[in-house]
């Protein structure tokens, strides 16, 4: 194990920390079955949809994207969106958008990667992601987990598990299975069929106030993360990041495996730029993710100011960035509303982070090395397990 300065130790996974500790054996005994799965036979790797990749081979990584689809049909109890007629165009156009991101990178920052943050049954099609990864020149990491109740109801599968006495543990088993063996195939009944395509992140989220079912999902995510070493990445809704972080850590998650997402606007629920709030989360050892760069209230200069604030306080190793783009979005409503929009197509520009945000950061005096830490090193570290 390479030596790591004390200040960086909070970012080590528990498995890495134990591996380097002289009291490793004793501590592992104390942790018992709760510790992450020990896999001394192989180095930590990033789990892409095409298989494990060494973290230093990712390059610049967009940590929260949806490519190509999001589909909320099941949340409204309506049939899944028709995909077949659009599939070929979806793959061609989305791989073109991702390849533009690849081309925006220098050789040393390539080939590039995205974390596809669409979790269970909201338009996550594992085979579609594999086909996209084969066409695109960037790596794709898929997500297990359940989305939250913000903007749409939560998935009935998550709600049902959330109210059962052993539901959180069973949900954790589902997440761990998707990470260790393969993701569920949404073409069958719930939990009926599984692929051999593995998830490499756990995506969860909260509404403006954390609902009981969302709390159960957080507890399950912490359990699955502890068991597998897989990182947890969150959706926040104008605040709630600190509550998420505290709950995940109380539930046993390693802070170096926790990514608090959708930062960059109203993160404390009050202020457009909540720099002090970010520092509170950073002091817990969690990552802060500015993942809507360029969109609406998340303009590049504002995101750069907030990132600079964290860099100036010494937290550059806990910052991640992305766009939260959705090239194909299907939002079908219930039969009562008679309001189905069909597929909405967005020309997503996946190069805003690597061009405009990088320029804004440079203007504020964030160095090339610090930008590289944020774009390349931090993703490689947090995604490897
Ligand atoms: Zn998202």
Description:
It is a single chain. Residues 1-38 have low confidence and may be disordered. With 385 residues, the chain is of the alpha/beta class. The longest helix is centred in the N-terminal third of the chain and has 17 residues, at 87-103. Helix 5 (156-163) crosses helix 6 (167-180) and helix 10 packs across helix 11 (353-363). A hairpin with a 2-residue loop joins strand 1 (46-48) and strand 2. The chain is globular and about 55 Å long. 36% of the residues lie in helices and 14% in strands. Bound molecules: zinc ion (ZN).
The helix tally amounts to 12
Give the uncertain stretches in residue-range form. Answer: 1-38
Q: What would CATH call the architecture of the largest domain?
A: Alpha-Beta Barrel
Mean pLDDT across residues: 89
Percent of residues in helices: 25-40%
Query: How many angstroms separate the termini?
Result: 14 Å
Q: Any idea of the CATH class of the largest domain?
A: Alpha Beta
Approximate strand percentage:
5-15%
> What is the domain tally?
2
Largest sheet: 6 strands, parallel
The arrangement of helices and strands along the chain is HHEEEEHEHEEHHEHEHEHEHEEEHH
**Widest sheet: strand ordering:** 7-8-9-10-11-12
CATH fold-level name of the largest domain: TIM Barrel
| Ligands, ions, cofactors | zinc ion
* CATH level 4 superfamily of the largest domain: Metal-dependent hydrolases
- What structural class do helix, strand and pairing data support? alpha/beta
């Amino acid at each position: 194990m390479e030596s790591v300065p004390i200040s960086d130790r909070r970012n080590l996974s528990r498995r890495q920390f134990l591996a380097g500790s002289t009291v490793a054996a004793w501590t592992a005994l104390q942790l018992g079955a709760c510790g992450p799965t020990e896999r001394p036979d192989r180095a930590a790797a990033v789990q892409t949809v095409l298989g494990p990749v060494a973290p230093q081979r990712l390059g610049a990584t967009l940590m929260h994207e949806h490519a190509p689809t999001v589909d909320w049909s099941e949340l409204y109890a309506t049939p899944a969106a028709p995909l077949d007629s659009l599939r070929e165009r979806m793959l061609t156009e989305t791989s073109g958008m991702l390849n533009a991101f690849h081309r925006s990178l220098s050789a040393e920052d390539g080939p590039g990667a995205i974390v596809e943050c669409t979790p269970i049954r909201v338009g996550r099609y594992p085979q579609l992601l594999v086909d996209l990864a084969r066409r695109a020149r960037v790596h794709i990491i898929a997500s297990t987990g359940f989305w939250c109740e913000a903007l749409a109801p939560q998935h009935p599968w998550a709600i049902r598990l959330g109210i059962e006495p052993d539901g959180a543990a069973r949900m954790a088993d589902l997440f761990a299975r998707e990470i260790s063996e393969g993701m569920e195939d949404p073409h069958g009944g719930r939990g009926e069929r599984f692929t051999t395509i593995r998830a490499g992140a756990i995506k969860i989220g909260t509404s403006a106030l954390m609902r009981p079912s969302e709390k159960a999902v957080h507890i399950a995510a912490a359990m699955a993360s502890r068991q597998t070493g897989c990182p947890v990445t969150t959706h926040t809704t104008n605040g709630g990041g600190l509550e998420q972080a505290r709950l995940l850590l109380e539930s046993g998650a390693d802070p170096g495996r926790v990514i608090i997402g959708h930062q960059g606007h109203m993160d404390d629920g009050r202020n457009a730029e909540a720099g002090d709030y970010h520092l509170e989360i950073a002091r817990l050892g969690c990552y802060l993710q500015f993942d809507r760069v360029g969109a609406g209230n998340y303009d590049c200069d504002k995101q750069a100011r907030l990132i600079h604030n964290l860099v100036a306080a010494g937290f550059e190793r806990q910052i991640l960035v992305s766009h939260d783009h959705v090239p194909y979005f299907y939002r079908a409503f219930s039969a009562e509303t008679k309001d189905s929009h069909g597929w909405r197509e967005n020309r997503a520009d996946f190069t805003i982070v690597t061009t405009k945000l990088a320029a804004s950061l440079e203007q504020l005096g964030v160095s090339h090395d610090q930008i590289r830490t944020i774009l390349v090193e931090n993703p490689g570290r947090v995604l490897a397990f």
